[in-house]
Write a structure and sequence with these properties.
Helices cover 39% and strands 14% of the residues. With 420 residues, it is α/β, with parallel strands linked by helices.
């Protein structure tokens, strides 16, 4: 089975769960003896793990044939792409085709991030996707999240191969309902053009069906999983330098993640006890607002803002925590609670998260119920028997939630689509 995958992030350079999920799923699927995965991303940085797949950088893929002197820019499209053919195939270009930057090697340049001209980069990425799809043997196309749906559609149109899209989140999750119409259009276009849709939770599946008017028979949930703990990660020790209990929030500090509810619950806990510290690890557009909110509640001396953390830093902060909290307003899945439970950290999650569908040994609360969140935090740091139970049973549970199993579920979808 030869799968051409399109993604926007791949570890170690990630900004969220999308890259983590892309890595875990591809590694899990690579354990299938006949699976051959080519993963395309805008800009590899050179330190990615390529041991189990072929990784291609869109920014390293020539799309034009240059004259010998490299100064003749008239021949912008030649050997690889006919512009009229491109326009004929694609009716949803999101940026003007004539303005993309091409370097002297005939490649489009990508930032490898989420720049201000993101829609232009998405469009440019879809252009390169058509070139790559023409040059490799493949059975199926798999696009991860909305940024790569146009790429997947283009690859499908130039090869005739079926397209599976993977919905890791929708704009309804990211925006608390204040949907960007352009992003919604890209998402819906991808869903309409896909032969099958994978969602990371039943919560997301319902959104896809109800908000994007998709046929339920076309949408299947494959829950995310967690990478087995490596020897290096297992050896990481707690760096907590105090007897105080530590309660941690780790993620993007944005309205989707509900950071204000965490701060408000922390204030309520501190009204009962003073032997606890709160950590907000991550960054985002609400970070300064949260710093001000902690000050307004008079708890700044008990609150720590670490900024963005990645790699082993994530596990250092988790292993230094007594409680992990994910109070997301709308979380399609949420891998971080699984990582926390894997480290033996008692975990509190919102009922509005996809991972709540598969976790039995985490405390579940409504994100808006600050009283319940505070009570759960206080109970775990106060009652050692409760903490120990959640530590032990939580770790047992997540150790059985593997990417290999998720990979086989995706494979069955591939087989279903190809058998059609």
């Amino acid at each position: 089975m030869r799968a051409l995958m399109f993604g926007w992030e791949f570890p170690p350079h990630i900004l969220g769960g999308l890259g983590t999920a892309s890595y875990g799923l591809t590694k899990g699927m690579s354990l299938q003896p006949d699976m051959d995965i080519t993963f395309v991303m805008p800009k590899p940085w050179g330190d990615e793990d390529r041991s189990f797949l072929q990784l291609i950088g869109a920014g390293n893929t020539p799309i034009v044939w240059r004259d010998v002197n490299f100064d003749d820019v008239k021949n912008r499209i030649g050997k690889y792409m006919d512009p009229q053919l491109y326009y004929d195939l694609r009716d949803h270009i999101y940026a003007d085709f004539s303005y993309y930057p091409i370097n002297d090697l005939g490649c489009i340049e990508f930032s490898g991030r989420y720049p201000n001209n993101l829609l232009e980069e998405i469009n440019n990425y879809s252009i390169v996707a058509g070139v790559i799809a023409r040059t490799i043997d493949l059975d199926i196309i798999h696009s991860h999240d909305w940024l790569t749906y146009p790429a997947g559609i283009h690859a499908k149109q130039v090869t005739g191969k079926p397209l599976v899209i993977h919905v890791h989140a929708t704009d309804f999750d990211r925006s608390r309902g204040k949907v960007n119409p352009t992003v919604y259009g890209i998402e819906k276009d991808g869903m309409d053009q896909a032969d099958h849709i994978i969602t990371v939770s039943n919560l997301t599946r319902n959104t896809v069906i109800e908000k994007y008017n998709q046929d339920p028979r076309k949408v299947t949930t494959v829950h995310n999983a967690v990478e087995p703990m490596t020897t290096e990660v297992a050896a990481i020790q707690s760096k907590k330098g105090t007897e105080d209990k530590v309660v941690t929030f780790l993620g993007r500090i944005t309205m989707q993640k509900g950071p204000e509810y965490f701060v408000e619950a922390a204030a309520k806990v501190l009204s009962k006890t003073n032997n606890v510290r709160f950590v907000m690890a991550g960054n985002g557009d609400m970070m300064n607002k949260m710093i001000r909110l902690a000050a307004q509640r008079g708890i700044s001396d008990r609150f720590h803002f670490t900024g963005f953390m990645k790699g082993t830093q994530v596990y250092e902060i988790l292993k230094s925590s007594d409680v992990y909290v994910m109070p997301s307003v709308s979380e399609p899945f949420g891998i971080s609670p699984l990582e926390a439970m894997q480290c033996g950290v008692p975990t509190i999650i919102s009922k509005q998260s996809g991972c709540s569908e598969i976790l039995d040994n985490a405390v579940k609360i409504d994100y808006w119920d600050i009283e319940a969140m505070a009570d759960a935090m206080y109970s775990i740091i106060t009652y050692s028997s409760m903490s120990k139970y959640l530590q032990e049973e939580g770790k047992k549970e997540v150790d059985g939630i593997t990417w290999e199993k998720a990979g086989w579920n995706v494979r069955s979808i591939y087989n279903q689509v190809l058998n059609k």
